[in-house]
Automatic annotation (TrEMBL):
GO terms for biological process: isopentenyl diphosphate biosynthetic process, mevalonate pathway; sterol biosynthetic process. This is Diphosphomevalonate decarboxylase. Its main location: other. Coiled coil: none annotated. Its EC number is 4.1.1.33. It comes from Buddleja alternifolia. It catalyses: (R)-5-diphosphomevalonate + ATP = isopentenyl diphosphate + ADP + phosphate + CO2. The chain holds residues 9 to 357 of 422 of the full protein. Residues 10-183 form the Diphosphomevalonate decarboxylase-like N-terminal domain. It is an enzyme of class 4 (lyase).
Length: 349
């Protein structure tokens, strides 16, 4: 027999960034972060997990290619899930898995991203969240989303925020064992649904410095990171929560852009410096800044993760349509900029 579960998880984009760990194994961050989860059907990971007594070891295929599961992160997630697994009875007669059986059983996992992997589009977030969620369903783990977020966190920090839709806060927590480092939902997906997110794919190539090693180097060498984590982010988190609660787009945009810029500033303050953005990214920033200044009030917010692609958040469909026009004007298809636009959230634009 084979039992399978399939799940789909959207990616999330941080508007107040997570950068830096206080514990590398448990993946505990040095500051809180806030993200927005994208619509489930746009940038997402689909994962099927299967269990069978015929499987002799755990195997995983990502976008059709087999990948190794020997890493500590996967093993940590699996250990946590096994310790919480329940009894399962299959629909067909005769399938009965007890809590103890999970220790010996192995999984086959097939996962697809519908967007470029490791190009700074937070693919690990959707991937690990989906893996933990689908395995939890298969293994009849009864924990709520917050507890599951603490498991997904051990796969990849940003993954813990993808367990919820809408606006999500990852609370850094204080405990050494990480039990209070969990994600909570600040507002659901309906709360501010006139926002439109456009991702300008500047490059779909794999990034040179992974987030994991980049943030390690920053913590080891940057003098700015401590100031950011201790002084700047705590205040910004409070202001961002307020902006989200009040659907205050000017405040939201100001905080989002400032936090993205500071994140890239600490990358530059790292030794050796890390450059995630390229010339096209910088041109997009200038274009948005000029437009916002011209209008007198922000129309669009930009944020860049560990790669050159721009995530642009506009406050309504009209602003998003104008933004797309501008992007196409400044970065025409087939120009050197290699820009393909993905429209998220509203297909009619
Ligand atoms: C820039 O979650 O990919 O996207 O925890 O080492 O797996 P690990 O790192 P990861 O880092 C994401 C960094 C970021 C900012 C963010 O998503 O908050």
């Amino acid at each position: 027999w084979v039992l399978t579960v399939t799940a789909q998880t959207p990616t999330n984009i941080a508007v107040i960034k997570y950068w830096g760990k206080r514990d590398e194994d448990l993946i505990l961050p040095i500051n809180d972060s806030i993200s927005v989860t994208l619509d489930p059907h746009h940038l997402c990971t689909t994962t099927s997990v299967a269990v069978s007594p015929a499987f002799t070891h755990d195997r995983m295929w990502l976008n059709g290619k087999e990948v190794s599961l020997s890493g500590g992160r996967y093993q940590n997630c699996l250990r946590e899930l096994r310790s919480r697994a329940g009894d399962v009875e299959g629909e067909e007669k005769g399938i009965k898995i007890t809590k103890k059986d999970w220790e010996k059983l192995h999984f086959h996992i097939v996962s697809y991203n519908n967007f470029p992997t490791a190009a700074g589009l937070a693919s690990s977030a959707a991937g690990l969240a989906c893996l933990v969620f689908s395995l939890a369903k298969l293994m009849n783990v009864k924990d709520d989303h917050s507890r599951l977020s603490a498991i997904a966190r051990q796969g990849s920090g940003s993954a813990c925020r993808s367990l919820y839709g809408g606006f999500v806060k990852w609370i850094m927590g204080k405990e050494q064992n990480g039990s209070d480092s969990i994600a909570v939902q600040l507002a659901d997906e309906k709360h501010w649904d006139d926002l439109v997110i456009i991702i300008a794919v500047v490059s779909s190539r794999q990034k040179e410095t992974s987030s994991t090693s980049g943030m390690r180097e920053t913590v080891e060498t940057s003098m700015l990171i401590e100031h950011r984590a201790k002084e700047v982010v705590p205040k910004r988190i409070i202001q961002m929560e307020e902006a989200i609660k009040n659907r205050d787009f000017p405040a939201f945009a100001r905080l989002t852009c400032a936090d993205s810029n500071q994140f890239h500033a600490v990358c530059l303050d790292t030794l050796p410096p890390i450059f995630y953005m390229n010339d096209t990214s910088h041109r997009i920033i200038s274009c948005v800044e000029k437009w916002n200044r011209f209008e007198g009030t922000p129309q669009v917010a930009y944020t860049f993760d560990a790669g050159p692609n721009a995530v642009l958040i506009s406050h309504n469909r009209k602003a998003a349509a104008l933004l797309l026009q501008r992007l196409l004007f400044h970065f025409p298809p087939n120009s050197d900029a290699d820009l393909n636009s993905y429209v998220i959230g509203d297909k009619t634009i």
